[in-house]
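## Example pair
The file below holds two records. Each record gives the amino-acid sequence first, followed by its structure token line.
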Amino acid sequence: MGRGTQASAARSGSQRVTKTRAAKAFDWDRIARDLDTRGSATIEHLLPAEECRAIAASYSNEALFRSRVVMERHGFGRGEYKYFRYPLPEVVATLRKVVYPRLAPIANQWNAAMGIEVRYPEEHAEYIARCHAAGQVKPTPLLLQYGPDDYNCLHQDLYGEHVFPLQLTILLSEPERDFTGGEFVLTEQRPRMQSRPEVVPLRQGDAVVFAVHHRPVRGTRGFYRVNLRHGVSRVRTGHRRTLGIIFHDAT
């Protein structure tokens, strides 16, 4: 598939598919409960297989991206990723636009529980304008690529003063067919306790919504903050690609 064809496939029809699915097809009450309970929630079949393949194939189209990061050079792990440039591909822009309003009420409830004064507007365009006014103007959605023995160290995606507390990762490859290993991993550190790990199983087209850095947990004396990090375990065989949707931009 040529580069022009890849870019066209990644853009065409995506708005209709993702807008319908993200707005109507999912149990957002269940997603909110899972986020409150575990700090993460899965969304099955957010993208169809053909769209996953088109997005993954666009990795070679340099015109879509503003930068490339080789993780080993920075101590981030092994593998690489590329940040999209503006204007974002249709599917990426649409996911940001339609998923954000579903997550903003959860983010506001979390901040209220943790005693954080920041509140998030209903629409992503208004929130991204806030980021840009503060100098956070670089788009953060990204494509990640892993090969054999690659992994991603536990980390948090913080890019400046403004941080939307939830983000989304979509698996573009099929486990066992395209790769083995490479599990999505979350760790949660509670005060005066050891870290709690969790592996989130995903199939091609599935997404996981998860906390960027903090979330509230109810204790005997009210809510307290727990600290979360995420990463990817070692890919044993094959190649794994994912799409990351971060709702704040970077400085």
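Second record, same layout:
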Amino acid sequence: VISKDHGITLDKVRAEMLGAAKKVTVSLDDTIILHGEGDKKLIEERCEQLRTAIEKSASMFDKEKAQERLSRLSGGVAVFKVGGASEAEVGERKDRVTDALNATRAAVEEGIVPGGGVSLLYATKVLQNLQTQNENQKRGVEIIEKALKAPVLTIASNAGFDGALVVGKLLEQDNHHLGFDAAKGEYVDMVKAGIVDPLKVVRTALADAASVSLLLATTEAVVVENADVKSKLPSRMPQMDDMDY
């Protein structure tokens, strides 16, 4: 509110311009205001003005600023208190909370799809009817189809099941919510079971994988680690007695 962008500097601030709150937490990077005591009617009117500005503005920069302001006025604040028996345990739990928070934000932006890789698996049905113009395109479609089946196949295989059998059985079904719960070894409705993925995460993962694959396909050489050679390397330096002169 008080910034050069709005034409207001600290020397121009008056008491009537300030508000009140029950708790304010200030850190190096953030300022969190809890239980603001402002007039809710005035806040809602301001939110409506911002929504109108977002719809009418032709500038992407102005839209982003208005959206940011709107989210601060209309959004709530949640505080997560993470505890544990040790610093390592607290850190691990904090990472889980952060991952869940990021996944929730992604889900709010673009929605969710059935998890466990089944959304990618069922997308292969579209590829089966895709018309190609030459052998190279056909081969490319086959590669993508194989890649889309990989998540379900890998999850099932890592859990000790026949991944190929699981993939085949799921593709026989018409219910695109049906998936394989590897933890229970059962076929379930993934959405009802709470096994879901943010659409944004699935989409960007596929796009990034395609981008890397294109880079590998057009490069002249790739440097990789040869596991066979590494396994044959001596585990220790030879002793003086072992050397031939």
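Notes on the second record: The CA atoms of residues 215 and 221 lie 11 Å apart. The longest strand covers residues 21-26.
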